[in-house]
C-alpha cells in the first residue's frame, strides 16, 4: 500500500469511527434532553465538559507524542526503542489515572459552587472513576496509531460509545422511574462514561495481545538490545508532550470556559433561571449538533501526525508538501457542506430531535463557527507532526486569551451569542497564525485561484438550502411537526450537499487530476459527475 493510500485509509477508518461515535453521542443527548429539566441538562453538560478537559491533561499529550515517537522509530528500524517508550507511557498512565480521578472527586463541589450550578457535584463525582482507565486507553490508541493501525482505536471508540450511551440513558430512565431528582439522574447518566471506559479498555487489550503474539512469531524483537533509561524516556516524552497537550486541548478548554462562565456572565443580565436554561441549551443541543462537522477533521488530525512525522524524519519535502495540501483541502472541502446543511436547517433539526424549538439560533451560530475549528485542528496537527509543538502552543495560548477577553466584552452586548462569537474568533486567530507559520516551512496553496468558485458554491448551496428550510417549516401546518421537520432536514441536507458538489465540479474547484488521486470508491462516485465539467475548465487544469 502506498503512503497516500495508507494515509487516506487511516483517515477514513478514524472518520467512520468518529462519525459513529458522534452520532451515538447525539443519540444519547436526545433522550437525556427529553428526560432532564434545565438543572439536569446543565449538570450533565458541566460533568462532561470538565471530564473532557481533564482527559487530555491526564494523558499529558503523550498519546500524540507516542504516535510520533513510535512512527519515527519504526521508520528508522528501531522497534525495540518504540516498545520501551510505549511501556514507559503505560506506567505514567496508570499512576496519573489514580491521581486525576481522586482530584476530580474531591474538587467537584468546589467547582460546582464556583460556576453557580451546585447541583452538578454528583454528576462530576460520578464521572470521575472514568479517568482511572482512559489514560491507559489513550496511550494504547496512540501506540497503534504510530504503527498505522487505526482499526484498533476506531473499534474501541465505537464500543466505548455504545456502552456509554446505552448505560447512560438506561440509568437516567431507571432513576426517573424510581422518583429520584434530576441531580441524581444526571449523575447516573454521567456514570455511563465509566462503563464505556471498561468496554474500550477490553477492546484495546484484545488488540494489544493479538499484535504481541504476531510479532513474537516473526521474532521482531531482539533480546540483546540495550535498554533506554526510564528517566531519559520521560525526558524525551515530556519535552514533546507538554507543548502538544497545550495545543491539543483547545476545544475542551473553550468548552470548559463557556460552561464555566455562561451562568456567571449572563445571570446578572437575564436572571439565574434564564442563564441556566441558556447553559442547558448550549450544552445539550448546540454542542451536540456542532460536534458533527469536525468529525472528519478529528480523524484527519489523528492520522496526520504519524504520516507527517515520518516524512519530516526522512526529509521528504515533496511528500510533506503533498500531504499538507491534501489535508487542508480535504478538511475544508468536506467540512463546509456539513456545516452549511446544519446551519441553514438548524430550526428544523432542533424541532426534529429536541423537546422544543428554543435555542435554534444558538445551535446555528455555534455550528457555523466550527468551520474555523476544523481548519484549526488540521493545522495544529500538521505543526505537531513537524515538531513545531512549542510554536503551536504559543498560538493556542494567544487564541485562548482572545477567547477570554472576548467573552467578557461580547457577552455584555450580545449575551450568549457574544460568547459563541468569541469562540469562533478564537479558532480563527489560531488558524491564521498556524497557516502563516506553515507557509514559511512548506510552500503550498490550499486552492489558489479556485477560491472564487468555492465561494460561489458555498453561497449558492447555502442560500438554496435556507430557502428550502423556510418552505419546509410551512409543512408544519399540514402535517405533524416532527414529520415535517424530518422531511425538511432530509431535503435540505441532500440539496445542499448535491448542489455544493455539482458546483465544485462545474466551476473547476475539483479537477480531474485531483479526483484521480482520491481512493477508488470516491473516484467511482465522482466519475459520472465529472462529465458536468465544461470543456474550457478541463483545458485550463
What structural class do you assign from the helix and strand content? Answer: mainly alpha
Number of strand elements: 0
Over all CA atoms, what is the radius of gyration?
A: 23 Å
Q: Helix count?
A: 24
Descriptive overview:
The protein is 83% helix and 0% strand. Helix 3 (62-75) packs across helix 10, helix 15 packs across helix 16 and helix 15 runs antiparallel to helix 21. Residues 1-7 have low confidence and may be disordered. The chain has helices at residues 3-35, 38-59, 62-75, 79-114, 121-127, 134-146, 150-177, 182-190, 192-217, 230-248, 250-270, 272-290, 295-313, 317-344, 346-353, 360-368, 370-385, 389-414, 416-441, 451-473, 481-506, 512-515, 520-530, 535-539. 53% of the residues are buried. With 541 residues, the chain is mainly alpha-helical.
Keywords:
mainly alpha, 541 residues, 83% helix, disordered N terminus
Task: Give the helix/strand layout.
Layout: H1 3-35, H2 38-59, H3 62-75, H4 79-114, H5 121-127, H6 134-146, H7 150-177, H8 182-190, H9 192-217, H10 230-248, H11 250-270, H12 272-290, H13 295-313, H14 317-344, H15 346-353, H16 360-368, H17 370-385, H18 389-414, H19 416-441, H20 451-473, H21 481-506, H22 512-515, H23 520-530, H24 535-539
Short structural description:
Helix content is 83%, strand content 0%. It has 541 residues and is mostly helical.
Amino acid at each position: 500500500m502506498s503512503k497516500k493510500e495508507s494515509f487516506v485509509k487511516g483517515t477514513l477508518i478514524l472518520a467512520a469511527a468518529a462519525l459513529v461515535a458522534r452520532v451515538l453521542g447525539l443519540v444519547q443527548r436526545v433522550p437525556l434532553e427529553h428526560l432532564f429539566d434545565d438543572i439536569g441538562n446543565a449538570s450533565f453538560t458541566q460533568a462532561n465538559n470538565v471530564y473532557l478537559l481533564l482527559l487530555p491533561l491526564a494523558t499529558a499529550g503523550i498519546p500524540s507524542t507516542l504516535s510520533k515517537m513510535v512512527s519515527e522509530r519504526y521508520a528508522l528500524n528501531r522497534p525495540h526503542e518504540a516498545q520501551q517508550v510505549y511501556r514507559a507511557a503505560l506506567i505514567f498512565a496508570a499512576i496519573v489515572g489514580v491521581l486525576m480521578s481522586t482530584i476530580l472527586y474531591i474538587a467537584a463541589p468546589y467547582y460546582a459552587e464556583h460556576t453557580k450550578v451546585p447541583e452538578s457535584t454528583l454528576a462530576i463525582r460520578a464521572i470521575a472513576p472514568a479517568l482511572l482507565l482512559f489514560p491507559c486507553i489513550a496511550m494504547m490508541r496512540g501506540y497503534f496509531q504510530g504503527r498505522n493501525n487505526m482499526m484498533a482505536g476506531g473499534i474501541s471508540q465505537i464500543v466505548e460509545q455504545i456502552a456509554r450511551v446505552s448505560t447512560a440513558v438506561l440509568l437516567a430512565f431507571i432513576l426517573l422511574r424510581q422518583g429520584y431528582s434530576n441531580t441524581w439522574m444526571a449523575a447516573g447518566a454521567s456514570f455511563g462514561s465509566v462503563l464505556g471506559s471498561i468496554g474500550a479498555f477490553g477492546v484495546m487489550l484484545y488488540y494489544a495481545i493479538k499484535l504481541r503474539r504476531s510479532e513474537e512469531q516473526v521474532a521482531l524483537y531482539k533480546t540483546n538490545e540495550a535498554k533506554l533509561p526510564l528517566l531519559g524516556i520521560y525526558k524525551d516524552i515530556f519535552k514533546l508532550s507538554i507543548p502538544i497537550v497545550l495545543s491539543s486541548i483547545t476545544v475542551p478548554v473553550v468548552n470548559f470556559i463557556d460552561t464555566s462562565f455562561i451562568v456567571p456572565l449572563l445571570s446578572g443580565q437575564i436572571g439565574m433561571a434564564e442563564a441556566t436554561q441558556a447553559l442547558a441549551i448550549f450544552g445539550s443541543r448546540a454542542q451536540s449538533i456542532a460536534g458533527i462537522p469536525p468529525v472528519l477533521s478529528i480523524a484527519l488530525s489523528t492520522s496526520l501526525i504519524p504520516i507527517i512525522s515520518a516524512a519530516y524524519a526522512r526529509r521528504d519535502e515533496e511528500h510533506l508538501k503533498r500531504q499538507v495540501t491534501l489535508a487542508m483541502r480535504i478538511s475544508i472541502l468536506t467540512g463546509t457542506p456539513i456545516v452549511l446543511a446544519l446551519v441553514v436547517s438548524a430550526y428544523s433539526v432542533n424541532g426534529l430531535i429536541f423537546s422544543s424549538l428554543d435555542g435554534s439560533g444558538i445551535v446555528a451560530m455555534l455550528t457555523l463557527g466550527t468551520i474555523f475549528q476544523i481548519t484549526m485542528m488540521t493545522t495544529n496537527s500538521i505543526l505537531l507532526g513537524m515538531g513545531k509543538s512549542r510554536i503551536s502552543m504559543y498560538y493556542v495560548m494567544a487564541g485562548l486569551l482572545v477567547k477570554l477577553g472576548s467573552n467578557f466584552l461580547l457577552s455584555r452586548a450580545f449575551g450568549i451569542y457574544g460568547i459563541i462569537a468569541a469562540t469562533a474568533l478564537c479558532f480563527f486567530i489560531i488558524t491564521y497564525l498556524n497557516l502563516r507559520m506553515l507557509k514559511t516551512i512548506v510552500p503550498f496553496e490550499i486552492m489558489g485561484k479556485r477560491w472564487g468558485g468555492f465561494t460561489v458554491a458555498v453561497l449558492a448551496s447555502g442560500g438554496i438550502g435556507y430557502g428550502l428550510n423556510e418552505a419546509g417549516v410551512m409543512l408544519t401546518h399540514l402535517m405533524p411537526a416532527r414529520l415535517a421537520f424530518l422531511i425538511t432536514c432530509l431535503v435540505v441536507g441532500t440539496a445542499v450537499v448535491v448542489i455544493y458538489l455539482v458546483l465544485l465540479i462545474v466551476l473547476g474547484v475539483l479537477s480531474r487530476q485531483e479526483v484521480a488521486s482520491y481512493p477508488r470508491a470516491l473516484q467511482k462516485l465522482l466519475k459520472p459527475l465529472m462529465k458536468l465539467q465544461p470543456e474550457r475548465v478541463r483545458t485550463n487544469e
